[in-house]
UniProtKB/TrEMBL annotation:
SUPFAM superfamilies on file: Kelch motif
Domain of life where this protein originates: Eukaryota
Matching InterPro entries: Kelch-typ_b-propeller, Kelch_1
Family matches, as PANTHER family: KELCH-LIKE PROTEIN 32, LD33804P
Pfam families associated with the record: Kelch_1
Organism: Laticauda laticaudata (Blue-ringed sea krait)
The keyword Cell cycle is annotated on this UniProt entry: no
Protein name: Kelch-like protein 32
Keywords: Kelch repeat, Repeat
Amino acid sequence: MFVTGGVTNTAQYQNRLMVYDPTQNKWLSRSPMLQRRVYHSMAAVQRKLYVLGGNDLDYNNDRILVRHIDSYSIDADQWTRCHFSMLTGQNESGVAVHNGRIYLVGGYSIWTNEPSACIQVLDVSKEGKEEVFYGPSLPFASNGIAACFLPAPYATCPNLQPLQVPHHKIGNV
């Protein structure tokens, strides 16, 4: 299990990355994230971790939405800033992974002080051709939401086709 970021009980934003090693029954530190993040999401695709969204504090200690995406190579213990960014900031979002795509679902905007119905899709299935696009909107706005795909054959799942085609595709960011 990997954990990133967070805020301490003394209100300090963190950029830490920790991994639990069950063979040693202890938590181990790894290379820290490139930026502090809280209320962000994280997903694993092909031995990389991706951190998306969340917020940080600026030089005035005001919260700012984080739109860039960072990836962590588990094998190299190294963070990289992705050359593509989120189309809009999202924090307190759910996250689900399916076929090399990361779905960032719902969330909360610190700019509007409202929950979101937005779904952004990060396609990392083809290295060098990664892209971010809008997926279908939720039928309701919600933050603190959870999301997942069923680990079942496609034929037994509800129709996933609308999630596989970028209906609201903006293009490469």
